[in-house]
């Protein structure tokens, strides 16, 4: 395991789902965590942790680059976990342009901007970048999630490209590719992950994969980690 003392991790989408589970696990393991989110629940226990630094930030904002520069000036960021994501579901013609823009801005453009801001320092000092993509990125098409699948596929390609650009540097890049996970991602869908055992992942399942990538050791990198429930299933939302 790498020495954790004074290691600082920046996580996007840290108020819920995979990002929140990962932040909680990292805090338990002694990391300092800078958590980005549009909002945090007042009773969230991680807010009271002495090593947690909450930053209210909408990653789709035009001021994202300026916010990252301020964080970079104030903290020595060792690791990035680019997790924030949004999805809208349905046949592509049912999506409006605002929904498409939100998907692209959140799932693809924001990671590009944040990576650019921290990349020189991470290359120089041997940092790590963990991208959270999706099983939709490697599927042969994503019906009813075409825009989301395209954004996540673009993120995967970007991660592979950054890894190649950094191959002669100390930077290590990993893409986590989770399948069906019980998070709020499906709030805009007409289905939810089946919560029966083995039917969907728990956010902490994905968080453990993130930890494995971060703590792989100086001489090891996991380029990509795919993680899936044994028997992925969805269920239709019940009408109230």
- Report how far apart the termini are: 49 Å
Major sheet description: 7 strands, parallel
Helix content: 25-40%
Secondary structure tally: strands: 9
Number of helices: 5
What pattern of helices and strands is seen along the backbone? EHEEHEHEHEEHEE
Give the radius of gyration: 17 Å
Tell me, briefly, the overall form: globular
Strand content: 15-25%
By secondary-structure content and strand pairing, the structural class works out as alpha/beta
Write structural notes for this entry.
The chain is an alpha/beta fold. The chain has 5 helices and 9 strands, in the order βαββαβαβαββαββ. The protein has helices spanning 17-28, 64-74, 97-125, 146-165, 203-214, and strands spanning 8-12, 32-37, 52-56, 79-82, 128-132, 172-178, 191-193, 224-227, 234-236. The chain has a 7-stranded parallel β-sheet, with helices on both faces. A two-stranded antiparallel sheet has the order 7-9. It starts with 7 loop residues before the first strand and ends with a strand. The mean pLDDT is 93.
């Amino acid at each position: 395991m790498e020495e954790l003392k004074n290691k600082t991790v920046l996580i996007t989408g840290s108020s819920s789902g995979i990002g929140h589970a990962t932040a909680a696990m990292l805090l338990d393991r002694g990391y300092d965590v800078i958590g980005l989110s549009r909002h945090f629940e007042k009773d969230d226990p991680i807010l009271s942790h002495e090593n947690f630094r909450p930053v209210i930030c909408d990653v789709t904002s035009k001021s994202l680059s300026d916010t990252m520069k301020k964080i970079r000036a104030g903290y020595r960021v060792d690791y990035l976990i680019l997790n924030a994501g949004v999805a809208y579901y349905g046949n592509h013609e049912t999506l409006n342009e605002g929904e498409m823009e939100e998907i692209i801005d959140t799932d693809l453009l924001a990671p590009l901007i944040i990576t650019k801001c921290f990349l020189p320092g991470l290359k120089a000092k041997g940092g790590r970048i963990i991208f959270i993509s999706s099983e939709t990125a490697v599927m042969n098409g994503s019906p009813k999630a075409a825009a989301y699948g395209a954004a996540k596929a673009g993120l995967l390609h970007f991660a592979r490209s950054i890894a190649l650009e950094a191959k002669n540097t100390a930077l290590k890049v990993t893409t986590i590719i989770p399948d069906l996970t019980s998070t709020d991602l499906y709030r805009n869908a007409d289905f939810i992950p089946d919560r029966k055992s083995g039917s969907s992942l728990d956010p902490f399942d994905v968080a453990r994969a993130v930890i494995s990538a971060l703590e792989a050791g100086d001489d090891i990198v996991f380029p990509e980690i795919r993680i899936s429930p044994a028997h992925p299933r969805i269920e239709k939302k019940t009408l109230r």
